[in-house]
Amino acid sequence: MEGLEELGYLGLFISSFLSATLIPLSPEILLGILIFNGFKLWLTILVATLGNFLGGITTYFVGYLGDWKKIEKYFKIKKEKVYSFKKRIDKFGSFIAFFSWMPILGDILTLSLGFFRVNIKGVFIWMFIGRSLRFIVIAYLIYNGIKIVI
Questions:
Q1: What does the pLDDT look like over 52-111, one tens digit per residue?
Q2: How many domains, the chain?
Q3: Range of the domain at 42
Q4: Model pTM greater than 0.70?
């Protein structure tokens, strides 16, 4: 994360994008640094959301391109186990994408939604809503925390 704060909004976009892939990053730290340093609140939220959303779309398509034979061969995951997970995904459909903002679990959900080819339009809508709310809430808490301390 070091050096990304010097890039300002671009650094936040990159951090948010990468954190929505299988790379473990925390854009919340950079979001807080930028807000603390006077960057525009709503623009930081927008940049973080767009970066994270586009990273989520990338993860969805990585899952979409998934090849069952390679997954079984390289990851030693049995079809039965994966398809029991698919039943849960089928039960809730694209709404599950709302929870794609959650660290680690969200990446697995997003990858799975792509792999099982869940309705792309619904996935993207719910993913955008969930990720937007994540950054709105975090930015609000950071901003108001700064106001209380200062």
A1: 999 999 999 999 998 877 777 776 777 777 778 888 889 999 999 999 999 888 998 999
A2: 1
A3: 4-149
A4: yes
